[in-house]
UniProtKB/TrEMBL annotation:
Reaction(s) this enzyme catalyzes, per UniProt: a peptide antigen(in) + ATP + H2O = a peptide antigen(out) + ADP + phosphate + H(+)
Gene: Cre-haf-2
Name of this protein: ABC-type antigen peptide transporter
EC class of the enzyme, as a word: translocase
Coiled-coil ranges per UniProt: none
A GO cellular component entry from the record: membrane
Nucleotide-binding recorded as keyword: yes
C-alpha cells in the first residue's frame, strides 16, 4: 500500500516537473522544440515581462512540489494521516492556480501572435490540470478517507458546546444535556448520515411529485429562455436610441422586448404555482412517512425518545424541509437555465471578457462549498436546540399542575431561557458565518465588475471589441451575478433543508427493534404461558427485570400477581401486551407464540387496564369505543354498567358526550379507571389484564366494580395485579413475583400455610397495618 502511494506521488512529481519545464521549449510558433528557449526560461535568463514571461508557472510548480515534498516527508516519518490536514490548502492552491493561469492567458493574448505558441497552451492547461490532479492525489491516495470538513472543525470550536453522541455517552458528568446517558447505551452512537444519502432521499421525495415538478420545469424553461433574451434586446433598444436609428427600428425592438417580457411573466406565474403546490405535497408526504414510522416503532423507542423533540421534528423540521427544498429546486433550476444562457451570450460577445468573469468562479465556488458544509452543520445544531426548547416547553406545559404545586415556575422559566440562549448562540455563529460569506461574495462581485469594466474598456479602446457588445456583455454579466447570487442562496437554503432533514430521515428510516408482522389467527381460549423468560428493558440493558420466569395461566382462571413494588409485575403485563419481546424464552397464548399472532386480532382478544390509564381528548363514548369499531351502542352501555361508569356519566350534563379533557384531566382518578375498565370490557376479551385497575377507587365503588369483574371473569382469563388483600384473596391462583422471579404460586390458603413464605409475610404486614388503621 505504502509503496503504491509513494510511487504515485513520485510519478506525479516527475511528470509535473517535466511537462511544466518542457512546455517552455514550445514558447514560439510551430511544433518545433527550441532548446535555447527551454534553457533560457528554466534558468531565468530572459528579461521578465508580464505579457510574455511564463515565470509564474515555475512558481506554481515550486509550490506544488513543496506540498509533495511535505507529503513524502510525513509518509517517511510515518504520519501519513496528517497529510489530510493539507487538503484544504492544496485545494485552495489549485483554485488560485486556475484563476491566475486564466489571467496569464489573457495577458498572453494581448499579443495575438502568442496564442499560436503551443507552449502558451501547454503551460496554461497543464497548470490548471496539474493543480486539479494534485487535489485528486490528495483526496483519493493520501487521505484515504474523504474530505470531511466537520472532522476538521470538530477538533476545534464545535466540540465545546454540543456533545457528539459519543462524548455524551462517555461523559460521566451529569449536566442536563447528558441526561440521556441511559439512552446512549441503547442507541449506540449512530454515525452521521452522509450528505449524499440525505440529498438523495430529499430529492426522492420531490421525485414522487414528478408531474408537478415536470410541469413546473416545463414552464420554467419557457420563462427562463424568454428571460435570457431580455438583456440582449434591452441592449438593442439602448443602442437604437444611442445610434438614433429611427422610430420604426426602435418600435420593432420594443415590440420584441414586450413579447419576451409578457411570455416570461405568464410562464413565471405558472411555474411558481406548480412548485408551490408540489411543496405542499412534499410536506404532506414527509410528515405522513415520519408519523407512520414513529407509530410503528417499538415501545422501547418511546421509553427514551422525548415527545417534544419528536413533535418538533414532525412540525418545524418537516415544514423547513418541504418549503426550502421545493423553493430551492425552483430557484436552482430557474437560475441554472438562465446562467447557462448568460454564459453562452457572454462568450459570443467576447471570449476574453467572459474569461475575466470566470476566473473568479471556482474561487467563489470553493468558499461556497466550505461555507455550505459549515452551514449544514450549524443548521442541524440549530434545529436540535429548537427541538430541545420545544421538548422542555412541552414537558412543562403538560405537567403544569406539578410545576405549580412545587412552585417551580421561575426555575422552569430560567431553564427555558437557557435553552433559548443556546439557540441564540448557534444563531450568532450562523450570523457570523453569513457575514463572512456575504463579504466574500460582495467583494468578488464588485471586483469582477471593476475588472470587466477596465478590461472591456481596454478592449474597446484598442478596437478589439465593439461598444454595443460591451453594453450587452455588461447586462448579461449583471444577470449572471444575480443568478450566481441566487444559486449561492439556494445552497444555503438547501443546506438548511439538509440540516433539518438529517434527523427527520433518521427517524423515517429507523427500523423498529421488532416488527408486528405475526400472521396467525388461532382460536383463543386464554391459556398464557411464560417459558423461561428473561427480560431486560432496552433502555437499561444492564438491569435484568425478569429472570428465567416460567408461569402458566390456564384459560378461565383468575390469577393475581403480587409482590413488592418494582418486582416486575407490570413488566410481565407489558410482555403479554407484546410491548416488548423477551430476551430469552417465549410467551405464548394457547400454545402459539404471541409474536406470531396477527397484531390487530391479538389485541381484540386481550385487553388491558393499565396502572396509569390514559384517556383521549374526546367524549366518554369515544374513549370507551376506542379502536373497537365492531361494538354497538348496547355493548358500550353494558360495559359501562359493568364498570360502574353508567351512573356517574348519566349525572353529567352531556352524558356519554362529555369531554374527558387532554389525557383525561377532566375526570377524577377513579372515573378514569372506571372508563378504562369499560374500554377493556367492551371488546369482550378472552384475556383481561387489570394492573392496579381499582387502586384509585373508594371501597364501595371498588366492591361494585369487583363484583362486576368477578361476574365477567367466569368466561375469561383474568390477570389481576393488586395490593389489596380483599381483591387478591378471591383469585383462583396467586403468583408471588419478587425481583423478577416467581417465588411462590398457589391459592390464598395454600400460600398462607407456608408461614415462612413471602406471601405470608406480605399478608401479615398488610393485616397488621389494617388493624393499626382501624384502631
Ligand atoms: N419502561 C421502562 N424502562 C426501563 N425500566 C423500567 C421500565 N418500566 C419499569 N422498569 C423497571 O423495571 C423494574 C420492574 O418494574 P415494574 O413496573 O414491572 O414493577 P412492578 O412490579 O409493576 O411495580 P409496582 O408494584 O410498583 O407497579 C423496575 O426496577 C423498574 O424500574
Ligand atoms: Mg406496576
Amino acid at each position: 500500500m505504502h509503496r503504491w502511494i509513494n510511487t504515485s506521488l513520485y510519478l506525479y512529481m516527475i511528470v509535473d516537473v517535466a511537462i511544466t519545464n518542457l512546455s517552455f521549449g514550445y514558447f514560439a510558433p510551430g511544433w518545433k522544440f527550441h532548446t535555447d528557449l527551454f534553457v533560457n526560461i528554466t534558468t531565468f535568463s530572459l528579461p521578465y515581462h508580464f505579457t510574455t514571461s511564463p515565470l509564474e508557472f515555475q512558481i506554481f510548480l515550486f509550490i506544488r512540489q513543496t506540498f509533495c515534498a511535505i507529503a513524502v516527508l510525513l509518509i517517511i516519518l510515518g504520519k501519513k494521516e496528517k497529510t489530510k490536514h493539507l487538503l484544504p490548502i492544496v485545494t485552495f492552491n489549485a483554485v488560485i492556480t486556475y484563476c491566475f493561469s486564466l489571467v496569464k492567458f489573457l495577458a498572453f493574448s494581448e499579443d495575438y501572435e502568442q496564442l499560436y505558441y503551443p507552449g502558451v497552451w501547454f503551460s496554461v492547461v497543464w497548470a490548471i490540470l496539474s493543480g486539479a490532479l494534485q487535489v485528486l492525489v490528495w483526496y483519493f491516495v493520501l487521505s484515504s478517507q474523504s474530505f470531511d470538513y466537520h472532522r476538521l472543525l470538530s477538533t476545534t470550536a464545535d466540540s465545546e458546546d454540543v456533545p457528539s453522541p459519543e462524548t455524551a455517552a462517555d461523559s460521566t458528568s451529569d449536566t442536563p444535556s447528558n441526561s440521556n446517558v441511559e439512552s446512549g447505551a441503547t442507541s449506540p452512537a449512530t454515525p452521521r448520515t452522509p450528505l449524499r444519502q440525505v440529498l438523495r432521499q430529499l430529492f426522492s421525495y420531490c421525485g414522487h411529485q414528478w408531474p408537478w415538478f415536470v410541469a413546473g420545469f416545463f414552464f420554467l424553461i419557457i420563462y427562463a429562455v424568454a428571460r435570457v433574451f431580455i438583456p440582449n434586446y434591452t441592449a438593442q433598444v439602448i443602442s437604437d436610441i444611442v445610434n438614433r436609428g429611427g422610430t420604426a427600428v426602435l418600435l420593432h425592438s420594443i415590440f420584441i422586448l414586450g413579447i419576451l417580457t409578457a411570455t416570461s411573466s405568464f410562464f413565471g406565474g405558472l411555474r411558481g404555482g406548480c412548485f408551490d403546490y408540489a411543496t405542499a405535497l412534499v410536506a404532506l408526504r414527509i410528515r405522513l412517512d415520519l408519523f407512520t414510522s414513529l407509530i410503528n416503532q417499538d415501545i422501547g423507542f418511546f421509553d427514551t425518545s422525548k415527545t417534544g423533540e419528536t413533535m418538533s421534528r414532525l412540525t418545524s423540521d418537516c415544514q423547513t424541509i418541504a418549503s426550502t427544498v421545493s423553493t430551492n429546486v425552483n430557484v436552482f433550476m430557474r437560475n441554472g437555465v438562465m446562467l447557462i444562457g448568460a454564459v453562452v451570450f457572454m462568450f459570443v460577445m467576447s471570449w476574453r471578457l467572459a474569461m475575466v468573469t470566470f476566473i473568479a468562479v471556482p474561487f467563489v465556488g470553493f468558499i461556497t462549498k466550505v461555507y455550505g458544509k459549515f452551514y449544514d452543520k450549524i443548521s442541524e445544531k440549530l434545529q436540535q436546540t429548537i427541538a430541545d426548547a420545544n421538548q422542555m416547553a412541552e414537558e412543562v406545559l403538560s405537567t403544569m399542575r406539578t410545576v405549580r404545586s412545587f412552585a417551580c415556575e421561575k426555575r422552569e422559566k430560567t431553564r427555558f431561557e437557557n435553552l433559548l440562549s443556546s439557540t441564540l448562540s448557534v444563531n450568532r455563529k450562523r450570523a457570523l458565518a453569513y457575514m463572512g460569506y456575504t463579504w466574500n461574495n460582495e467583494f468578488c462581485n464588485n471586483a469582477i465588475l471593476i475588472a470587466v469594466l477596465w478590461y472591456g474598456g481596454h478592449l474597446v479602446l484598442n478596437d478589439k471589441m465593439k461598444k454595443e457588445q460591451l453594453i450587452t456583455f455588461l447586462l448579461y454579466q449583471m444577470q449572471l451575478g444575480e443568478n450566481l447570487y441566487m444559486l449561492s442562496y439556494v445552497m444555503s437554503g438547501l443546506m438548511e433543508a439538509v440540516g433539518a432533514s438529517r434527523k427527520v430521515f433518521e427517524l423515517v428510516n429507523r427500523k423498529p427493534q421488532f416488527e408486528l408482522n405475526g400472521r396467525l389467527k388461532p382460536t383463543v381460549n386464554g391459556n398464557i404461558t411464560f417459558s423461561h423468560v428473561g427480560f431486560t428493558y432496552p433502555s437499561r440493558p444492564n438491569n435484568p427485570v425478569l429472570k428465567d420466569l416460567t408461569l402458566s395461566i390456564k384459560a378461565g382462571e383468575t390469577v393475581a400477581l403480587v409482590g413488592p413494588s418494582g418486582g416486575g409485575k407490570s413488566s410481565i403485563v407489558s410482555l403479554i401486551e407484546h410491548f416488548y419481546e423477551p430476551n430469552d424464552g417465549t410467551v405464548s397464548l394457547d400454545g402459539v407464540q404471541i409474536k406470531d399472532i396477527n397484531h390487530i386480532y391479538y389485541h381484540q382478544k386481550i385487553a388491558l387496564v393499565a396502572q396509569e390509564p390514559i384517556l383521549y381528548n374526546g367524549s366518554v363514548r369515544h374513549n370507551i369505543l376506542y379502536g373497537c369499531d365492531f361494538a354497538t351502542e348496547d355493548d358500550m352501555l353494558n360495559a359501562s354498567k359493568m364498570a360502574n361508569v353508567h351512573d356517574f356519566v348519566m349525572e353529567l350534563e352531556k352524558g356519554y358526550d362529555t369531554n374527558c379533557g387532554e389525557k383525561g384531566v377532566q375526570m377524577s382518578g377513579g372515573q378514569k379507571q372506571r372508563i378504562a375498565i369499560a374500554r377493556a370490557l367492551v371488546r369482550n376479551p378472552a384475556v383481561l389484564i387489570l394492573d392496579e385497575a381499582t387502586s384509585a377507587l373508594d371501597t364501595e365503588s371498588e366492591a361494585l366494580v369487583q363484583q362486576a369483574l368477578s361476574r365477567c371473569a367466569q368466561e375469561r382469563t383474568v390477570i389481576i395485579i393488586a395490593h389489596r388483600l380483599s381483591t387478591i384473596e378471591k383469585a383462583s391462583k396467586i403468583a408471588v413475583i419478587v425481583k423478577g422471579h416467581l417465588v411462590q404460586m398457589g391459592t390464598h390458603s395454600e400460600l398462607m400455610s407456608e408461614t415462612d413464605g413471602t406471601y405470608y409475610s406480605l399478608v401479615s404486614r398488610q393485616m397488621l397495618s389494617a388493624k393499626v388503621g382501624d384502631e
